[in-house]
Write a structure and sequence with these properties.
Layout lengths: L1 H40 L1 E16 L2 E10 L2 E9 L13 E7 L2 E7 L3 H5 L7 H7 L5
Antiparallel strand pairs: 1-2, 1-4, 2-3, 4-5
Protein backbone atom coordinates (compact mmCIF):
# COMPACT_ATOMS: atom_id res chain seq x y z
CA UNK A 1 0.00 0.00 0.00
CA UNK A 2 2.88 2.35 0.61
CA UNK A 3 4.19 2.01 -2.94
CA UNK A 4 0.73 2.69 -4.36
CA UNK A 5 0.27 5.84 -2.32
CA UNK A 6 3.84 6.92 -3.17
CA UNK A 7 3.17 6.46 -6.89
CA UNK A 8 -0.17 8.25 -6.55
CA UNK A 9 1.42 11.28 -4.85
CA UNK A 10 4.15 11.29 -7.52
CA UNK A 11 1.45 11.37 -10.20
CA UNK A 12 -0.13 14.39 -8.51
CA UNK A 13 3.17 16.01 -7.56
CA UNK A 14 4.70 16.03 -11.04
CA UNK A 15 1.95 18.02 -12.78
CA UNK A 16 1.84 20.48 -9.89
CA UNK A 17 5.61 20.93 -10.15
CA UNK A 18 5.40 21.61 -13.89
CA UNK A 19 2.50 24.05 -13.46
CA UNK A 20 4.49 25.96 -10.81
CA UNK A 21 7.61 25.92 -13.00
CA UNK A 22 5.65 27.20 -16.03
CA UNK A 23 4.06 29.92 -13.89
CA UNK A 24 7.45 31.04 -12.63
CA UNK A 25 8.93 31.15 -16.14
CA UNK A 26 5.96 33.15 -17.43
CA UNK A 27 6.31 35.58 -14.51
CA UNK A 28 10.03 36.10 -15.19
CA UNK A 29 9.42 36.65 -18.91
CA UNK A 30 6.53 39.09 -18.37
CA UNK A 31 8.50 41.02 -15.71
CA UNK A 32 11.51 41.28 -18.02
CA UNK A 33 9.31 42.59 -20.85
CA UNK A 34 7.71 45.17 -18.54
CA UNK A 35 11.11 46.40 -17.35
CA UNK A 36 12.46 46.59 -20.90
CA UNK A 37 9.41 48.48 -22.16
CA UNK A 38 9.54 50.92 -19.22
CA UNK A 39 13.23 51.56 -19.88
CA UNK A 40 12.60 52.27 -23.57
CA UNK A 41 9.65 54.58 -22.85
CA UNK A 42 11.14 56.47 -19.87
CA UNK A 43 14.88 56.54 -20.50
CA UNK A 44 17.47 59.18 -19.80
CA UNK A 45 21.12 58.88 -20.72
CA UNK A 46 23.93 59.09 -18.23
CA UNK A 47 27.55 58.02 -18.19
CA UNK A 48 28.81 54.96 -16.40
CA UNK A 49 31.97 52.98 -15.93
CA UNK A 50 32.61 49.29 -16.41
CA UNK A 51 34.35 48.10 -13.26
CA UNK A 52 34.71 44.40 -13.99
CA UNK A 53 34.37 41.84 -16.75
CA UNK A 54 34.07 38.24 -15.54
CA UNK A 55 34.27 35.32 -17.90
CA UNK A 56 31.44 33.09 -16.70
CA UNK A 57 30.85 30.98 -19.79
CA UNK A 58 27.05 31.27 -19.54
CA UNK A 59 26.08 30.87 -23.20
CA UNK A 60 29.59 32.18 -23.93
CA UNK A 61 28.69 35.53 -22.41
CA UNK A 62 30.70 37.61 -20.00
CA UNK A 63 29.35 39.28 -16.87
CA UNK A 64 29.93 43.04 -17.07
CA UNK A 65 29.55 44.98 -13.83
CA UNK A 66 29.11 48.71 -14.28
CA UNK A 67 28.49 51.70 -12.03
CA UNK A 68 26.57 54.87 -12.84
CA UNK A 69 25.09 57.88 -11.10
CA UNK A 70 21.59 59.20 -11.71
CA UNK A 71 20.12 62.23 -9.97
CA UNK A 72 22.95 62.23 -7.43
CA UNK A 73 22.58 58.58 -6.39
CA UNK A 74 25.09 55.85 -7.25
CA UNK A 75 23.97 52.52 -8.74
CA UNK A 76 25.61 49.25 -9.75
CA UNK A 77 24.27 46.88 -12.38
CA UNK A 78 25.22 43.84 -14.41
CA UNK A 79 24.84 43.01 -18.07
CA UNK A 80 25.60 39.66 -19.67
CA UNK A 81 26.99 39.85 -23.18
CA UNK A 82 29.81 38.71 -25.37
CA UNK A 83 32.95 40.81 -24.98
CA UNK A 84 35.78 40.17 -27.45
CA UNK A 85 39.07 39.34 -25.78
CA UNK A 86 40.80 42.48 -27.09
CA UNK A 87 38.22 44.71 -25.37
CA UNK A 88 38.73 43.25 -21.92
CA UNK A 89 41.70 45.54 -21.29
CA UNK A 90 40.10 48.60 -23.00
CA UNK A 91 36.52 48.66 -21.65
CA UNK A 92 37.05 48.68 -17.84
CA UNK A 93 37.38 52.22 -16.53
CA UNK A 94 36.20 53.76 -19.80
CA UNK A 95 33.13 56.03 -19.57
CA UNK A 96 30.24 54.50 -21.52
CA UNK A 97 26.63 55.56 -22.08
CA UNK A 98 23.95 54.08 -19.84
CA UNK A 99 20.21 54.24 -20.48
CA UNK A 100 18.40 54.68 -17.16
CA UNK A 101 14.68 54.25 -16.52
CA UNK A 102 13.58 57.57 -14.98
CA UNK A 103 10.73 55.83 -13.15
CA UNK A 104 13.03 53.13 -11.72
CA UNK A 105 16.72 54.16 -11.83
CA UNK A 106 17.85 50.66 -10.87
CA UNK A 107 16.56 49.54 -14.29
CA UNK A 108 19.36 50.39 -16.70
CA UNK A 109 21.23 49.18 -19.75
CA UNK A 110 24.87 49.62 -20.67
CA UNK A 111 24.87 50.78 -24.30
CA UNK A 112 27.72 49.30 -26.29
CA UNK A 113 26.61 47.80 -29.58
CA UNK A 114 24.88 49.54 -32.48
CA UNK A 115 21.62 47.63 -31.86
CA UNK A 116 21.58 48.90 -28.25
CA UNK A 117 21.37 52.46 -29.54
CA UNK A 118 18.90 51.57 -32.29
CA UNK A 119 16.52 50.22 -29.63
CA UNK A 120 16.36 53.73 -28.17
CA UNK A 121 16.41 55.45 -31.58
CA UNK A 122 19.71 57.08 -30.74
CA UNK A 123 22.62 57.69 -33.12
CA UNK A 124 25.65 55.49 -32.61
CA UNK A 125 28.49 57.63 -31.21
CA UNK A 126 31.76 57.91 -33.12
CA UNK A 127 33.67 57.45 -29.85
CA UNK A 128 32.46 53.84 -29.62
CA UNK A 129 33.12 53.02 -33.28
CA UNK A 130 36.82 53.33 -32.56
CA UNK A 131 37.04 50.14 -30.53
CA UNK A 132 33.70 48.40 -31.13
CA UNK A 133 33.84 48.56 -34.93
CA UNK A 134 37.51 49.37 -35.72
CA UNK A 135 37.10 48.57 -39.45
CA UNK A 136 34.74 51.55 -39.81
CA UNK A 137 37.21 54.18 -38.59
Amino acid sequence: MTTRSGAKSLLWGLPIFFVLLAGFLIYVNVRENILERSLRENHALTSGTVVEIDERGVKKRDRITYHYTFEGKAYAAVRWLFVPEEWKSIVPGRPLPIAVDTTDPENSLLLLYRQDFEGFRLPYPDSLKYFVYPDER
